[in-house]
UniProtKB/TrEMBL annotation:
<keyword id="KW-0408">Iron</keyword>
<comment type="similarity">
    <text>Belongs to the uracil-DNA glycosylase (UDG) superfamily. Type 4 (UDGa) family.</text>
</comment>
<dbReference type="GO" id="GO:0006281">
    <property type="term" value="P:DNA repair"/>
</dbReference>
<dbReference type="InterPro" id="IPR005122">
    <property type="entry name" value="Uracil-DNA_glycosylase-like"/>
</dbReference>
<keyword id="KW-0227">DNA damage</keyword>
<dbReference type="GO" id="GO:0046872">
    <property type="term" value="F:metal ion binding"/>
</dbReference>
<dbReference type="InterPro" id="IPR005273">
    <property type="entry name" value="Ura-DNA_glyco_family4"/>
</dbReference>
<protein>
    <recommendedName>
        <fullName>Type-4 uracil-DNA glycosylase</fullName>
    </recommendedName>
</protein>
<dbReference type="GO" id="GO:0051539">
    <property type="term" value="F:4 iron, 4 sulfur cluster binding"/>
</dbReference>
<keyword id="KW-0234">DNA repair</keyword>
<dbReference type="GO" id="GO:0097506">
    <property type="term" value="F:deaminated base DNA N-glycosylase activity"/>
</dbReference>
<keyword id="KW-0326">Glycosidase</keyword>
<keyword id="KW-0411">Iron-sulfur</keyword>
<feature type="domain" description="Uracil-DNA glycosylase-like">
    <location>
        <begin position="41"/>
        <end position="200"/>
    </location>
</feature>
<dbReference type="InterPro" id="IPR051536">
    <property type="entry name" value="UDG_Type-4/5"/>
</dbReference>
<keyword id="KW-0479">Metal-binding</keyword>
<keyword id="KW-0378">Hydrolase</keyword>
């Protein structure tokens, strides 16, 4: 079981995904809700065998209230197609449910959630995890990977390796699509290909399960 899903002082809500989504929309555990347009909760089948965990919503996700619908989401859709995975069979969510940003003129520029904000939001990821009990999980990006595996995890060193979280569940980490988009052109295609390879590992695991 990942660290965030283990018992904590704050009880983790246990309800349907629909009820959890409604509860999360009222969350005031950190200041991010004040500027955000919407709480971007997870999306996908309640019986999904695989969960993809991103880092935090971007501008388009905040406006729509849905995960992975902006530029990073479109790149992820292309990678899923290249790996032979159907997004509709997966549960997609983020470690942080609100968009954090800095204003530059009329633009809202992504800003990384700090440790307090990440910790405040983990109750919702834990609730999603305990509701789905996924057989397979893929963390996208360093923040998501460290949420799943602990602070000592290093994406550059341990990407693409299955790790047993308990007797039932295995998880892996890969590049976040937004990190690929921000990568220098000299490594962007390589990192995209590595993401596709990791998604193919997930597809193979699902086929063989």
């Amino acid at each position: 079981m990942p660290p965030f899903a283990k018992p904590t002082k704050a009880p983790v809500p246990r309800a349907s995904l629909r009820a959890l989504r409604a509860h999360a929309a009222q969350c005031r555990a950190c200041p991010l809700w004040r500027e955000a347009t919407a709480t971007v909760f997870g999306e996908g089948p309640a019986r999904a065998r695989a969960m993809l965990i991103g880092e935090q919503p971007g501008d388009e996700e905040d406006r729509s209230g849905r995960p992975f619908v902006g530029p990073a989401g479109r790149l992820l859709d292309r990678a899923l197609a290249d790996a032979g995975l159907d997004r509709k069979t997966l549960y997609l969510t983020n470690a942080v449910k609100h968009f954090k940003f800095q204003r530059r003129g009329k633009r809202r520029m992504h800003d990384r959630a700090n440790a307090h904000e990440q910790e405040a939001c983990r109750i919702w990821l834990a609730a999603e995890w305990l509701r789905l009990k996924p057989r397979w999980a893929l963390a996208l990006g360093a923040m998501a990977a460290q949420t799943l595996f602990g602070a000592a995890f290093r994406l550059s060193r341990e990407r693409g390796c299955w790790i047993a979280l308990d007797a039932r569940t295995r998880a892996m980490a890969s590049w976040h699509p937004s990190a690929i988009l921000r990568s220098p052109s000299s490594v962007r295609e390589q990192r995209y290909c590595e993401l596709v390879v990791d998604l193919r590992r997930l597809a193979q695991a699902l086929d063989e399960d």
